[in-house]
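Hey, quick one: can you model this chain's 3D structure?
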Amino acid sequence: MIKNSTDDIEALIEMMAKLPGLGPRSARRAVLHMIKKRALLMTPLADTLQTVAATARECLNCGNIGTQDICEICEAEKRATGEICVVEDVADLWAMERGQAFKGRYHVLGGTLSALDAIGPEELRIPRLLDRVENERVTEVILALNATIDGQTTAHYIADQLETKGVKVTSLAQGVPIGGELDYLDDGTISAALKARKSI
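Sure thing. Here's the predicted structure for all 200 residues.
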């Protein structure tokens, strides 16, 4: 059986359609554009994808994505402010960094507690967070979790775990709407919410 010449293209469209924000129609348009600009877009993109696939890894300390075992934020001495900002995932960390309002370090949980999905503290990086609070001279933990039921449940659980650790525990305040997710907020909103954080 002779393979159809468009099979590979259709396979690429199907793969692209699996990306967040891209449906089948958007994926088809993107693939057609890349094919038309093959030398300028497709070949460099393929090379970059291969490089990132080989080098990207999670930071062993905070869970950020980078190319080293310990990310640049954790390595930077100037960011050893005693403040750790706890976020749900890497997209939230990058959103906070875009705002350029926070100068401390981060901790990526990798999700939120969810009884329905059988996600408990051990499935997240909560034990690692508690270790960091003990060992990194942390003075404040900022809970920058999404304003969802699971996000707030997780925030209260972490606050309870930190109650006897002698650290200040705060959360983002104004600017973050109920049901809102950090990755979709503008930089000004994130900056305002960070500055107006409060104890919980």
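One thing worth noting: The helical segments are 7-17, 24-36, 38-55, 72-75, 90-99, 126-135, 149-162, 187-195.
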